[in-house]
Write a structure and sequence with these properties.
The complex is a heterodimer of chains A (117) and B (109). Chain A is mainly beta. Chain A is 0% helix and 55% strand. Chain B is an all-beta fold and 109 residues long. Helices cover 0% and strands 60% of the residues of chain B. Chain B has strands at residues 4-7, 10-14, 19-25, 32-38, 45-51, 56-59, 62-67, 72-77, 86-94, 96-99, 103-108. In chain B, the strands form 2 sheets. In chain B, strands 2, 4, 5, 9, 10 and 11 form a 6-stranded mixed beta sheet that branches. Classes of the chains: A mainly beta (117), B mainly beta (109). The A-B interface holds A 34, 42-46, 49, 60, 91, 93, 102, 104-106, 108-111, 113 and B 1, 31-32, 34, 41-46, 49, 51, 89, 93, 95-102.
Chain lengths: 117, 109
């Protein structure tokens, strides 16, 4: 149990376009989902925390109008990178709380590698 | 907010030796401390965790210790094997997790 999927696993897009990334908890209801960004050889930087049915809480320095997060159900959260630019190229990973783990444990998705040309 | 420092950034050991990675945190509200192993291009995998009401936890070759007073916690891997080579992250959690910068562990056969 406690499987989290992400789609797509990788995407290449042109500068100026928008990209949507989906994060799904496959076998449990996720009360909270997190979105992280990871640059090569660096740590995971939390971008935002989302709870089902409410607005996401963004970390300082993260533009909420550029990184749109929707958490419409207990099993799905989406991150849309709007008007993507090359500097947005990164590895985006979601995680979800809930399921069979302790109430603190996060289950990570496999990540989405975004390349903006 | 929370600040987590992790040391060392790189660690190289011989197979069979022990490896120790240390982290400090700043927010006394943090009450959950997971450790993750991440291989290149893959998702972080939880390897062990500890809650603030526990001082030590062990799972086979892996152990974690927590000193809540000093706000530091450590990962200990004994009898290291080449497949232990990866990047290890600590995290301190108070609702949300703040990650350390990672330690690249290389186990030489």
């Amino acid at each position: 149990g406690a499987v989290v999927s992400q789609h797509p696993s990788w995407v290449i897009c042109k500068s100026g376009t928008s990209v949507k990334i989906e994060c799904r908890s496959l076998d449990f209801q996720a009360t909270t989902m997190f979105w992280y960004r990871q640059f090569p050889k660096q740590s995971l930087m939390l971008m935002a925390t989302s709870n089902e049915g409410s607005k996401a809480t963004y970390e300082q320095g993260v533009e909420k109008d550029k990184f749109l997060i929707n958490h419409a159900s207990l099993t799905l959260s989406t991150l849309t990178v709007t008007s993507a630019h090359p500097e947005d190229s990164s590895f985006y990973i979601c995680s979800a709380k809930g399921g069979s783990g302790s109430y603190n444990e996060q289950f990570f998705g496999p990540g989405t590698r975004l390349t903006v040309l | 907010g929370e600040n987590v420092e992790q040391h060392p950034s790189t660690l190289s050991v011989q197979e069979g030796d022990s490896a120790v990675i240390k982290c400090t945190y700043s927010d006394s509200a943090s009450n959950y401390f997971p450790w993750y192993k991440q291989e290149l291009g893959k998702r972080p995998q939880l390897i062990i965790d500890i809650r603030s009401n526990v001082g030590e936890k062990k799972d086979q070759r892996i152990a974690v210790t927590l000193n809540k007073t000093a706000k530091h916690f450590s990962l200990h891997i004994t009898e290291t094997q080449p497949e232990d080579s990866a990047v290890y992250f600590c995290a301190a959690t108070a609702g949300k997790s703040t990650f350390g910068d990672g330690t690249t562990l290389t186990v030489k056969p």
